Amino acid sequence: MMLASLLLLALLGCGDPTIYPDYPDALVGLVPNDTGPFVQSVPLACGRAPEGTTAQLTVINQGTVPLDLATVDEACVETFQFQLAPGGVENLRIDNHLMWAAYDPNGVRVAVFGVASGTQVSWVEYLP
Q1: pTM of this prediction?
Q2: Which of 21, 77, 85, 108 has the smallest CB count inside 10 Å?
Q3: Are 48 and 76 spatial neighbours (Cβ–Cβ below 8 Å)?
Q4: Residue 4 is inside which H or E element, if any?
Q5: DSSP assignments along 78-96, one per residue
Q6: Considering the chain, what is the average pLDDT of its residues?
């Protein structure tokens, strides 16, 4: 009887989110890669509601491969903006409610970043 009670108690806990929380968003970011079985990309971060402010953004590619950069709005929709060459620097005036995602030549998301909210913001982002 004691064993049956313990088994029933264990089964009841299966749906309890405090015991078994949802998988983190990072697990959704597993993408196939030609050089290995799987590479975990950086989880996508979505923008916030437009606040009507802009910022000065400088993006620096410190890596050895070109990166494709896209903005990500509050609905998590990505919009390609430009490709940044290795060692390249791009200066932009942007809406600072958007997030950004950077992809390597294999299409793996290698970085996400955002700019602080508010007015008169100047931000420098160093990418891998």
Answers
A1: 0.68
A2: 21
A3: no
A4: helix 2-12
A5: EEEEEEE-TT-EEEEEEET
A6: 78
* pLDDT tens readout for residues 34-85: 444 445 579 999 999 998 999 999 999 999 999 999 999 999 999 999 999 9
Which of 74, 81, 88 is CA-nearest to residue 44? Answer: 74
* Greatest C-alpha distance within the chain: 71
Give the integer Cα–Cα distance in Å for 100 and 67: 12
Q: Which of 32, 27, 55, 7 is nearest to 107 (CA)?
A: 32
Hey, what are 112's tokens? 């996400």
Do the Cβ atoms of 87 and 67 come closer than 8 Å? no
> 70 forms bridges with which residues in the sheet?
80, 101
- Written as one letter, the residue type at 33 is N
Residue 53 CA neighbour count, 13 Å, CB half: 16
Is 80 in contact with 68 (CB distance < 8 Å)?
yes
Q: Which domains does the chain have, with CATH numbers?
A: 44-127 (2.60.40.780)
